[in-house]
Design goal:
286 residues; alpha/beta; five-stranded parallel beta sheet; 13 helices; 8% strand; globular
Length: 286
């Protein structure tokens, strides 16, 4: 096949059933492992029927599950550090001109947004927005790089309602979490969903009875078990010193989607609140 199996799954994502999307989500998050598991193991991991996996393989114009694993291995073998949305490889090389670097970084960013748009489940977004709209107070949290993402989320949502708050210090986060009630919610950003901080936060949220929305790369992240809603997004994280802003860009996309959906759902209230803020800011500029 001209395109890799990964590219084809991404391109056809919208045409798959909900059960088939579970397979794609799992395989994209566990590409290497999926090359060596049985069809029974994959169906169990995705919580779908074995027959669903078989039909899924045929939709990809493959003869069966073994062919699917072979294509996964082939896609893994030819993958490179930077991939464009169309699947063409575009590695950064010594000697690249500034124009080439700009083009390749653009393609990589497009890939991050493209992949996130396909991984993000619209029903999960709707459930998340309903929780945010119904909560009396919402904490926006993250650690490390994701603390900056939480700050950006606060910047977006603070223009829509006064109930959104953020804290970067882990000790203050624990204090704020412990004061939540059943009427409150937490929007937590974590790439792996497995750090001590996010697991501690999830445990506290459960104890106080609040709701938790987890934005993470992996469907089966440890903290996902405690989350009311999981929003999957992002690209494969690059190890130091090859990190990029792609992972953060994908989460910023999620913030933009959530804020836009929230604004539309709460149009009357958010419009009045934004108008008040606008009036104050205009007075300061005079």
């Amino acid at each position: 096949m001209d395109k890799s199996i990964v590219d084809i799954m991404l391109l056809q994502y919208d045409s798959f059933t909900a059960a088939e999307k579970k397979i794609v989500d799992y395989v994209l998050s566990h590409q290497k492992e999926s090359q060596y598991i049985s069809i029974t193991e994959l169906s169990a991991a995705c919580n779908v029927a074995i027959s669903t996996v078989s039909v899924f393989c045929r939709k990809l114009k493959l003869s069966g599950f073994n062919d699917f694993k072979i294509e996964l291995a082939r896609a893994d073998t030819v993958s490179s550090p930077v991939r464009t949305v169309s699947g063409a490889d575009a590695p950064l090389k010594v000697g690249d001109s500034t124009a080439e670097v700009m083009r390749k970084v653009l393609h990589r960013s497009q890939e991050a947004l493209h992949r996130t748009a396909h991984l993000l489940d619209e029903h999960a977004v709707d459930r998340a927005v309903e929780i945010l709209a119904g909560a009396q107070k919402v904490l926006l949290l993250g650690q490390g790089d994701h603390a900056a993402v939480a700050d950006e989320a606060w910047m977006q949502f603070s223009l829509l309602a006064p109930k959104f708050q953020t804290l970067s210090d882990s000790h203050l986060q624990r204090i704020a979490l412990s004061t939540l009630t059943e009427s409150d919610a937490v929007l937590y950003f974590s790439y792996a969903g497995a750090t001590r901080e996010v697991l501690d936060a999830a445990e506290i949220v459960q104890q106080v009875g609040a709701r938790m929305i987890l934005v993470t790369r992996f469907l089966h992240a440890p903290a996902a078990e405690c989350a009311d809603v999981l929003l999957q997004c992002g690209v494969e994280e690059r190890p130091l010193p090859h990190r990029s802003v792609d992972e953060l860009l994908s989460q910023l996309y999620v913030i933009e989607v959530l804020a836009a959906r929230y604004r539309l759902m709460e149009d009357v209230h958010t419009r009045e609140y934004r108008e008040r803020i606008g009036e104050i800011l205009e007075k300061r500029q005079v």
